[in-house]
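Predict the assembly for these two chains.
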Amino acid sequence: MDIDCRAIAQSLKLNLMQQSLVLEEDMGIVPSLVSVSVNRTGDSSAYVRSKRKLAEELGVQFRDMDLKGATAAELESQLRDLSSDPSVHGIMIESPLPGGFDFQKFADMIPAAKDVDGLSTESQGLIAVNREFMRPATAYAIIKILEHLNVPGGSSVTIINRSKLIGRPLAMMLLNRDYTPTVCHSKTIDLQRIARSSGILVTGVGKAGFITSDYVTENTVLIDASINFRNGKITGDADYENLRDHIMAITPVPGGVGAITPVMIYTNLIASLMERSRISH
Amino acid sequence: MDIDCRAIAQSLKLNLMQQSLVLEEDMGIVPSLVSVSVNRTGDSSAYVRSKRKLAEELGVQFRDMDLKGATAAELESQLRDLSSDPSVHGIMIESPLPGGFDFQKFADMIPAAKDVDGLSTESQGLIAVNREFMRPATAYAIIKILEHLNVPGGSSVTIINRSKLIGRPLAMMLLNRDYTPTVCHSKTIDLQRIARSSGILVTGVGKAGFITSDYVTENTVLIDASINFRNGKITGDADYENLRDHIMAITPVPGGVGAITPVMIYTNLIASLMERSRISH
């Protein structure tokens, strides 16, 4: 069975459109987001375009700022300006930055209230101490899928990914919701056995065809968070055609986790503005 | 087999004594630590006394500050003074604080460089993004035991505890060292099966006799991080007498994790001072 991630995304978007209207009509706030990149390449341009399109649907003002040939000092100075500019509500730094740029250092210049990617040390710390504020979009999208499926608290969830975008914050977010996380990676011993022993398997390996029948059982719910390109086609980690009829449920790629992920950036943005306006009223 | 945690603690202490001497002789720095409590009770007094005794052994200046009847504002003001006082190198807040005091809020007033308990949002965030600086002492003690046992990277480690003192930071610290963590808790479904499936089992449940033979196999290495009182005796979570000869290895209580934990506070303190003095030289 395919998990209908487009339907989840659609329902989240409708909700955001309503909140965005409330912000504008009741409070006169038009949410605004700035995407900052340095020497952007083709792939990330496509991603930025899709985020811009979504912003327009949601009534969010989107500014695309590509700093061509910027030095680290120039990026720093730009981030400082955006951080202190009250008309900017959210800031994202697009990956990759040029070689030698320390991504985390720049992410940490964004104040928590504007860190819509949830990648700063403070945002990750707030997740770890169960005071979630901004959440990394992919991890958050996976949580929305689990909620949609009504996965009961206490259930085991195995993640094959230990990045700051997925595995690490997702493990803490799962604990915050009473799930039981296991975090696996390239060094994990006995990975197939561990993957099979858990009802929910999240994969973010980045290798097309990596997840074969050796990693699943007929009871597996497979959430495929990878976006790989193979033979000119977009595909996840799962050997989708061979698995889909032999496991409990699967998210397709495209049209799976990736359909929800960009929506979660705007959920971060709009929820934090709603929160702020509630406090000031 | 008992894991000889007192020997691990002893070797760590010898190392700290040497570093402490270097700091004093070469740099004229005597490490200093302040323990702050409000309306301290008997149990935590005993813990503070043992920390003071260890400080004396290690050449650390220890100040015990119990604020009797202090309000939240008074505690805040005291923490602000200690944070800006250059003669204070480390600050610990003793639990429990009076009802209504938000422990995390006070922990977050301690700057990262002085947060020797590793409980601030920033310290926990630094662990989560693999830039460990200050580590919660119990989690760090468990890492030292794994290193002592030469547990290979990739191995599975199951933790029954999801607190900010043990389970959460330990999971991230395990990932930072290539282990494969699973974090369980009171809501976990099928806990005994999960516990048995992992070579290393860490328990911090706080219930004497909780870990019975149902949770282990003959290959289990059991790290018991609890300190419980039963019938006037100190005991961990494990049914120690019945388990010790039927599993691979076990940490006794007392004389196990708890023998190493206080040493890790001073490891945080002295390592950060060594780091700082290296930078300034």
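Chain A has two domains: 27-114, 137-259. The interface with chain B takes residues 104, 120-129, 131, 152-156, 162, 164, 167-169, 171-172, 175, 178, 180-185, 187-190, 194, 197 of chain A (CB under 8 Å).
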